[in-house]
Amino acid sequence: MVRYMVRIQIMAQALKNVIAQSLECPVCLNTFTDPKILSCSHTYCKTCLDNLLECHGSDQMLRCPVCRAETKVPNQDVSKLPANLALKPLIEDVKNQYQFCTNCKSEDKPRAVVYCQDCGKYLCIPCHNIHSQWPDFISHEVLAMSEILSGKVSVRRYRKCRKHPKEDEECFCSNCRRFACFRCVVMEHTNKGHLVIEAAVYESNHVKSIKDLKSKADKKRSCFQKYINFIDEQKERVSNVQKQCTDDINKAYEESVWQLTEKKELLIGEVKGRTKRVEKELDEMKKSAQEHITHLTTIADLITTRTKIPSDMDALATHDTVCQDLQEAFNKEDPDYKQPRQVSKKGKSVNLKRNVGMDELGLGKIVNAVAILQNIALPTQNSMSAMVGTPDDRMAVGSWKGGVDIFSVDGQHQQTVFKDVKIHGLGFLSDDRYVILDRSNNIALYTLEYTKLNIMFETLSTAEGGLANLTVDGDHQIYVSYWTAQKIHVFSSAGGKAIREILCYGYKPEQITSYNEYLIITSADTIRLIDKQGVVKYKLTKLGDDLYPAMSQGNTILIASLNHDVGSISIDDYTYELKHVQNLVMDYKIEKPSEEWYYLQQYRSGEIAFCTSDRLYIFD
Fold first, then answer.
1. For 78-104, how does the pLDDT look when each residue is reduced to its tens digit (9 = 90+)?
2. 559 SS3 class
3. Pick the residue with more confidence: 7 or 380?
4. Residue 356: partners with Cβ closer than 8 Å, 6 or more residues away
5. Which of 201, 231, 274, 596 has the maximum number of C-beta atoms within 10 A of its C-beta?
6. pTM given for the model
7. Are 374 and 586 in contact (CB under 8 A)?
8. pLDDT of 576 strictly over 80
9. What is 110-152 written as a DSSP string?
10. What is the DSSP string of 465-487?
11. Domain 372-619, CATH 2.40.50.140 — does that match?
């Protein structure tokens, strides 16, 4: 009779475990709360479905994590999906059912007060007292039944095989994605292609995978949070510009006559209009980054906040789906700080130009101005001969008297190198080696440590070709333009003779700049964009001004227009077709040098450098 009762209790406990597992949500692995049915008949907690729907943004279609079938969610409101009414009474019965001690041998089992996670047993008060006194059991994790019933903690169940209730599922088949007991493994998972491992090994790998995913999610969230903080900084700077402009306008208004009220309001409106458009662009970038953080957080929480290992096929399928969604989120490129920086510059450049000294009464007009950051005297006066941006975002200025001076973005003179080399052209190969053209038209290559390499180039002498200039493209090709010969030689970085020649018909190639698949050629007041066969594609002339081009970080062309008579420059942005985009610097007065030789370049961080023979100007 006793054996019969024991068998009945074992069968009842096994049935109870099966029912309890059937009432678990495949997403959160807890007993269903407010269960909702999808069109594919799979059931999930309402909260879990809300989280899954949020991961898909504004899409009203919800993809089932188990079978991948789609269910339309009316107005993105999960509460409108049908409830699983059949499960609700079972859930209540499981919640309200007493748990009896599974350690006592008597037929009349008392109610359990604790559950030992390590032993996998429910214990009454006497059994708990005995259990807590044994040294081997002191470190076991024991949960109070009150905390389990309240939902504060979850029980780590020991899996029993559904086909063989007395057997533990000690194995895991990686191909079938199922836990199995040893008997099931022998009968069903010994065929070729089945990879069976210990369940404990799978659980260990699973926990490690969760930790790795959480670590990656934390790093990705941190990355986008820094991006959002950067956007906020740019917005604050733009807002400060708006405030400063508004203050300037108000001051000019107070100094002028009251009849200018309408003009004042128009100007303030224009400032707000320009800066608000920039702020709107920055807000859109910030919103996109915040949505990605929310997306990462929601998916990561679905995986990383669970305390149990998924045991059945639906839960495993759900886990695989959510992990795949998180992996897709990881594949999103990290934020590009260059974009908000460039957008914010449009707002930071807004400025009021007063009508000072003019007969016409007025407050002035709103212009895009670029602030001067630095006006630096070069260490070697009246000898600047070349300038190029370095690979580490500094500016290298060469001197025909000898040496290359290196300047940081904030205008600090950091070092002088190649003091004994008389520079007339500078460039960098894509592996960061220096390319130097000296006053005798000789080319030399140097390492990052300023060691000269034993590579020779057969260039034209000054007697044959006249003065020369140099540029380097992204394919390790070196272009040397000769003023008198009116031609361009193209060299490989391996040295030797020119691999080809480009003729400049009817114009002198004074300065040469590489621009994607083209070359920009400067000849006094004219700029030509030619292809690498020498065909002129576009041309720009400004009579009375000398023009100096540079490739911008935004892949456009910057052109400085220099008026020698008044000693002022204007810098404008152009498309590759040499069509005007916007003015960046307008009529900025420079100190007129004794030698008329100039260069224009841009730092990678966006600042513009304009160099005369004796001074370096840096504009923000």
1. 888 888 877 777 766 566 566 778 888
2. strand
3. 380
4. none
5. 231
6. 0.48
7. no
8. yes
9. PBP-EEETTTTEEE-HHHHHHHHHSGGGTTS-EEEHHHHHHTS
10. H-SEEEEE-TTSEEEEEETTTTE
11. no
